[in-house]
Structures are given as C-alpha cells and as structure tokens.
Amino acid sequence: MVNNKELLERFLRYVKIDTQSKEDETVQPSTAKQKDLARILFAELKDLSADPFFDEEYGYVYASLPGSEPALGFVAHMDTAPAASGTGVNPRIVENYDGGKIILNNHSEAGTSPVILDPDYFPELHSHIGEDLIVTDGTTLLGADDKAGVAEIMNLFEFYANHPEIPHRRLCLAFTPDEEVGRGTEHFDTDRFGAKEAYTVDGGKMGEIEYECFNAASAVIKISGTSVHPGDAKNKMVNAAALAVECHSMLPQAETPEHTEGYEGFYMLGEINGSCEEAYLKYIIRDHDREKFEKRKAFMQTITDYMNRKYGEYFTLTLNDQYYNMADLMKDHLHLIENAKKALKELGVNASVIPIRGGTDGAKLTYMGVPCPNLCTGGYNFHGRYEYASVQEMEICAEMLIKLAQ
Ligand SMILES: [Zn+2]
C-alpha cells in the first residue's frame, strides 16, 4: 500500500535540509533554519489538502484529514541533535547489504583513519542483511531521528488524502522543533493539534514500542566559599571546590548511568565547576519508579542539609522536575499499545515493549493530556555519523501507521 519510492524520496529530501537545534537558546525555535523544513512540510500538506497550519512564531506544523471519531494523532520532530553536524547531509544507499563493513568515507575530518560502519562495533547490522541501508558520508549525522518519522507520517497523510474511500479515523499531525534540546512541547498547542490520543513516531529499532520512560529532574548544588590568602587561611578559608568533591562523594557510586540498565535509576554528575570562592555540581536524576525518583531528590536534599550542618550554610540545592514517566498515565490507554502490537503482527513483526532510558516528547504530551506512546521508525545509531536507516523497515513502519489509522 505504501508508495515505497515516494517514501524514500521524501526521506532523502528532508534529511538534506539542515535543521540542527541548539542548546541553551532562549528563543524557540532555537535555530531559525528549522523553519525551512517546516515551510516545506506546510506546502506539501497544503498540496494534500490536509488543512495545514504553520505556527510562524514557534515553528510548529499542524495538519488534519477528516475521518471518523475519535481522532488519532501522530507527532514527529523536525530538528536534529546538536551532538553532530547536520549541514550538508549527503545520504547514500547501500543496496542489498551483505553484512560486511561499510566504508562511509576514506578521509575523516581529522585526516587520519577512514570512517567505517563496522558490524563488529554495531552488531545490529547483522539483522539488516539483504536490506537497503541509507548511510551518511561519515561527516554528518543522517537525521533519520526523526525525519524517518516525519516521512512516514507524511506518507500516511498522502495515502489517506488519495484514498478517502478507505474508512479511517480523523487524523491529526504535529511536527515539532527543538525536541533534541528538550523543548519540543514548550509551545505545543494541544487544541490546535486536535487529537486526544496520539503516537510519537520517534523510536528506532524495528518492532519497538515505548511507553515507559524515566522520571527526570535536574539538580544543582551551589557552594559559596570564602577565599582567603592561603598563608592566613587557618580557620577562615572555606574552599568551595574542595567541599564540592566531598559533597559528590556522598552519592552512591554505583548508581550512575555507566553502572545501570533496564529499570535501574541513577544520579549523573554532568558538570562540575569550582574555585575556592564558588563551586557548583550539576546533576541529572533519573528513575522509572516515581517513588524512588522522589527519594532520590530527597536524598540530594539530605546531603545538602548535612553539609550545611557540618560546615555552615554554604550549600544550596535547586531541583527542577523535567518530565515524568508516561506509563503512570497510560494505564487507561493501553489500547494504544495493543493496537500498535497488532498492526506490527499483521506485518509479520514481533513487537517488543521496552522501557526507555530517557524521555520523549510523548512523555510531556501525555502529561499535557494527550497520551502518546512512541513507535519505531527503522532508524539506528542516532545522533552521530554512524546513523543509518533501513529502507525496508521504514516501509514497514509506514504500513504500520496506515493500519493504525483504520
Ligand atoms: Zn528523536
């Protein structure tokens, strides 16, 4: 049912448009170039008579196609990760992949060794033997995250725009900016979107459906010291940098990202900066279990209070919740998961429901009243130059969306 050639062409068209987002910007979208793709999508949706709306200010694109109620929504993000360049993406298709090494280029940016997509490092490549893989030229990311999702949703809309006679639900879509910098839902208009349940199409591996994610908070411990000449410092100096080290040493050393997996939560020291005068420790706190998550935050407070009792009031803690586990709200909407499993099964794919060790825009949307599990796209190795996508898997994902709409 999917026009495979058109799906691939769409994808190749979108990845060539640079939409890299940027950390620590106050405006949205964080980079104006994200609107370049938004405008193209808006125009294409207009051609499909899908009643598109382009939010000129914040860069969101919305559209809908008539159908039966209740409406079903689909969300994908237009930006690519700041972690790797998205300028001059030059995709190449490796047809009928044979399971060997794929040389992405022979002239790495450093001018040293070639950039090779090697199944020894990426064993998942073995599962793609015989498929056509879209790879990078080794200098940029690919942008399958999430332009694979964008292309698959556009394909869905094109399909039902051309086949209004096939019964389907009213369909709503939203393409968001700045997902990669954690701000994809900041100005998301749920009324404009128009669906009360939806999927983000922003996952990776074939068959994966995600609806459990972390509860997430940031924590900053700031330490104000007192700088005195070291020669006269006795009983006067308060060395903020040294106190920061002591503070950090009180956290459980095995509860870090590099020592945990599955449902295990962690504290991660993301940044440390300090002098005698002032120091700060920046953490992220993650846990799937809401109760354990609250305990982790409380423990940070316990440490801060302890240090203040021990040394004087030099320590302040700032905690900010970032997002919550959507599973806690998904209990009444598990049909979304069941429907996705069923659609995959009809396409000959075994679904796997796995907990995400991260968050998605869907998690935030779920808490904004639009339950929103995450679906696979057929893309792999996101956020770097080893990113690739499988043409055949993208086709299956696109078929899955068409089935879900029915
Ligand atoms: Zn993504």
Description of the molecule:
The protein folds into 2 domains: 4-213 and 326-404, 3-Layer(aba) Sandwich (Aminopeptidase), CATH 3.40.630; 215-323, Alpha-Beta Plaits (2-Layer Sandwich). A hairpin with a 7-residue loop joins strand 17 and strand 18 (388-390). Helix 1 (4-15) crosses helix 3 (144-162), helix 3 (144-162) crosses helix 10 (391-404) and helix 8 packs across helix 10. It contains 10 helices and 18 strands. An 8-stranded mixed beta sheet has the order 1-2-8-3-9-16-10-15, with helices on both faces. Strands 4-7-18-17 form a 4-stranded antiparallel beta sheet. Strands 12-13-11-14 form a 4-stranded antiparallel beta sheet, with helices on one face. It has helices at residues 4-15, 34-47, 144-162, 190-193, 240-249, 290-311, 327-330, 335-346, 361-367, 391-404; strands spanning 53-54, 61-65, 68-77, 92-94, 102-105, 115-117, 133-135, 169-176, 198-201, 208-212, 215-224, 266-274, 278-287, 315-323, 352-355, 374-375, 379-380, 388-390. The structure holds zinc ion (ZN). Zinc ion binds next to helix 3.
Care to give the gist of this entry?
29% of the residues lie in helices and 24% in strands. The protein is of the alpha+beta class. The chain is built from ten helices and 18 strands.
What is the domain tally? 2
Count of helical regions: 10
Query: What CATH first level of the largest domain would be assigned?
Result: Alpha Beta
The amount of helix comes to 25-40%
Placed side by side, the strands forming the largest sheet appear as 1-2-8-3-9-16-10-15
Query: Low-confidence stretches at least 5 residues in length (pLDDT < 50)?
Result: none
Structural class: alpha+beta
Radius of gyration of CA atoms, rounded to a whole number: 24 Å
